[in-house]
Sequence to fold (89 residues):
Amino acid sequence: MALGATGRHVIRLVVREGLALAGAGLAAGLALAALANGMIQSWVLGTSRLDVAVVTGAALVLAAATLLASWLPARRATRIEPTWALRRE
Fold:
């Protein structure tokens, strides 16, 4: 903000970076879950091949948590004076 960005731009940047990291983590976790699915099926009776509802629900919960965890600090950071923040660094 000290360089001229608006609060909306800062929030958008922080949330976009947070969601990109969550997306990468979700993709890696989904790949590992698909690989480990065969082993899990042998341990737990009654599980299906890959339950789409569970995977979708987990992805939505992760996205909501990431959105909240990145939006709240970004919103708080836009409310402080840039000169005060620069003096503290």
Residues 7-79 form one domain.
